[in-house]
Amino acid sequence: MKKPALAIALAGSFALTACQSSSDPNVQARNAEFGCIAGTVGGAIVGGLIGSTIGGGTGQVIGTAVGLGGGSFLGNRLACR
Fold first, then answer.
1. What are 27-55's pLDDT values in tens digits?
2. Predicted structure pTM score
3. What is the DSSP letter of 53?
4. How far apart are CA 12 and CA 23, in angstroms?
5. Neighbouring C-beta atoms of residue 75, cutoff 10 Å
6. What is the DSSP letter of 9?
7. Of the candidates 81, 80, 18, 15, the residue with the CA atom closest to the CA atom of residue 46
8. How deeply is 9 buried, as exposed, middle or buried, from its count of CB atoms within 10 A (0-12, 13-18, 19+)?
9. pLDDT, tens digit (0-9, with 9 covering 90-100), for 6-15
């Protein structure tokens, strides 16, 4: 795996590990909002990494862009129920 891709994957996994639970409704609301944001960002990271493996040159750029958009959409839909 390339170093930039590994750095992005590690940053995404660290961002997603900060979730916690609490009985306070204010904390729960903030955690739900964080989970929604983390799902969107995590989906974009994973989608971008998958999209970057497709094609070469301009096709790779387009694949990365489509992966970013699709991954962020799916991550948002899964995390923001």
1. 666 667 777 888 888 889 999 888 888 87
2. 0.61
3. T
4. 27
5. 23
6. H
7. 15
8. middle
9. 666 656 665 5
